[in-house]
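Researcher: Next entry in the queue.
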Amino acid sequence: MAQLSIDTTTGRLTVADGGFADCSGLESIRQHVWLRLQIFLGECAYDVGLGVPWIQEVVASGTAPERIATIFREAIIRTPGITGITSGPTLDVDDNRAMQLSFTATTDEGLLVFSSPISSKPVQEID
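Model: Structure for this entry, 127 residues:
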């Protein structure tokens, strides 16, 4: 089933040919993973258990890298359409604290190779 396409660098809906673009298949699974990684734990009013514990663990001082990898692995594997993770996740952080998450996963639609910037601040605040 098609869903609205989101530009994962801006967090905004993708516009093409004067209207909103849609995506399906492997691209919609990739987008769904990206969206799940943007949700802060407790942010979603109807499911406070949904989300990544960004403040509680990911950016908190002293969290072991192995724990951070486990947090992302759990968020990825719980995404509908993902059937397994074949490599990663690997989180690269540059000098400006910008994060790039990479992994490879099997899905209902085929092999997903994911490498995307992720942010530890809500999408609506990204400039």
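Model: The longest strand covers residues 82-93.
Researcher: Noted, moving on.
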